[in-house]
Amino acid sequence: MRTKEETEAAAGVGTGARAGTGAGDDHVPVRFDTKIAVLLRDDLEPWARLNVTAFVVSGLGTASAEVIGEPYTDADDTTYLPMFRQPVLVFEGTKEMLTAAHGRALSRSLLRAVFTSDLLSTGNDRDNRAAVRAVGKDQLDLVGMAIYGPRNAVDKVLKGARMHP
């Protein structure tokens, strides 16, 4: 089993044992060598944008434990679930841009989660997985995706996308 430092080094996370963890000097900004990003199709309704974002980011923590920080505790010692250790940046773009970004994410072997237009009308995980399974990767009608990986690779995947307003 790998140590945390070995896992981070293998994933290209941080520049040392304390990078990206928030440990150390509280006055030094925490910088991450990785990026978590969501790309949404620009024609989604507001409720769908929130739904798609929640769904696609949920997959990242299951595939890469390093993206999850420590549990939270309030002043009364009530414990809360851990969340991502770094910000999630949300972008938007056209249908064509999403298709191109998907191809770039695949070619770079980045961790990714997808949400297709079919999933907006299903009501359960089994039907969601079946809807994606029924379509080849080049024909997916993507409305959103989450990606995680080295910051520069994610930036290249998102080329041309704009920050969500």
Please characterize this protein's 3D structure.
- The protein is α+β, with helices and mostly antiparallel strands and 165 residues long.
- It has helices at residues 4-11, 46-63, 95-107, 125-133, 151-157, and strands at 34-41, 72-73, 79-80, 88-93, 111-116, 142-150, 162-163.
- A hairpin with a 5-residue loop joins β2 and β3 (79-80).
- The longest helix is centred in the first third of the chain and has 18 residues, at 46-63.
- The chain is globular, with a radius of gyration of 17 Å.
- Mean pLDDT is 86; it is low at 1-22.
How many runs of DSSP E, i.e. beta strands? 7
Question: Whole-Å distance between the termini?
Answer: 42 Å
What is the SS-derived class?
alpha+beta
**Strand order in the sheet with the most strands:** 5-6-1-4-7
Give the overall average pLDDT: 86
* Largest beta-sheet characterization: 5 strands, mixed
Assembly type of the chains comes to single chain
User: What's the helical proportion of residues?
Assistant: 25-40%
Secondary structure tally, helices: 5
Segments where pLDDT lies below 50 for 5+ residues?
A: 1-22
Estimate the global geometry from the Cα principal axes: globular
Strand content: 15-25%
Give the topology string: H per helix, E per strand. HEHEEEHEHEHE
Rg from Cα = 17 Å
